[in-house]
């Protein structure tokens, strides 16, 4: 790494108080097993969780604190933790590899359609304010795809689709080597109130007329009717034509299409390279096998997803700990006295 990058690493614009940094790292990194410390990709997932916690529960509640990027936060972490200090000079490379790995984790969500099949619900994130997409998220280890979709939709919209979802009815695409599956959820009232449960992730949940969505990136319909650029819908473009086909057939889904896209920003698949495959009623087990096969190909080591990352039977040697955690004790006598 060149000298300028070393200077950038040492002098990141943001400064996190040491006591707060200690608390965050105690929460999310103190129990990382020794074997996992050799896998920096897994460590980056824990750093991401700590970063989210910092933004949600520290920055939002203290006006003196400033938000920071994942790079700035990771720079603090790599400089502060002894077993990471020796890798701090490769921070850019490590984060780039981690972001590439994240793209291989399958995502599941829902296409929420209104009564009458006229509108579809889209969400807008804080970090991509000019774009809209379907509520979805990455799957946890050994998590059922439909359960992942229910959980992610609940987190991003506050709406529980568990009574609406049919595990056998969905649209999916393989986009940039990442499986994206969206379950069809119908007949949701237009007056439903959506309140995201996650902080600083979803800015808005809005109904859009399905007929006003662009069929491709050059379709000017949303610009004319809503004053919104078709590029704002690049995350939904791979699904629009099939969604309109479903709505035009009164919501009947008689087949499922798996489409492979060269790039999500292209909005549509190149017919000369990527052919649509019609799938009949196929068991969920076959789909799960397909997902696991892709994951094993991309990750020869133990599968790491965004939440459950480390074996529970391994506990590390503590190298540091926030004072508030070191001083924490259970009063066993008091607890026993309260028991009947």
Automatic annotation (TrEMBL):
Main location: cytoplasm
Keywords associated with the record: Cytoplasm, Hydrolase, Manganese, Metal-binding, Nucleus, Phosphoprotein, RNA-binding
Pfam families according to UniProt: DCP2, NUDIX
Domain mRNA decapping protein 2 Box A per the UniProt entry, residue ranges: 18-102
Listed GO biological process terms: deadenylation-dependent decapping of nuclear-transcribed mRNA; nuclear-transcribed mRNA catabolic process, nonsense-mediated decay
Location in or out of the cell: Cytoplasm, P-body; Nucleus
Family, per entry: Belongs to the Nudix hydrolase family. DCP2 subfamily.
UniProt function note: Decapping metalloenzyme that catalyzes the cleavage of the cap structure on mRNAs. Removes the 7-methyl guanine cap structure from mRNA molecules, yielding a 5'-phosphorylated mRNA fragment and 7m-GDP. Necessary for the degradation of mRNAs, both in normal mRNA turnover and in nonsense-mediated mRNA decay. Plays a role in replication-dependent histone mRNA degradation. Has higher activity towards mRNAs that lack a poly(A) tail. Has no activity towards a cap structure lacking an RNA moiety.
Protein name: m7GpppN-mRNA hydrolase
Organism, scientific name: Brassicogethes aeneus (Rape pollen beetle)
Source lineage: Eukaryota, Metazoa, Ecdysozoa, Arthropoda, Hexapoda
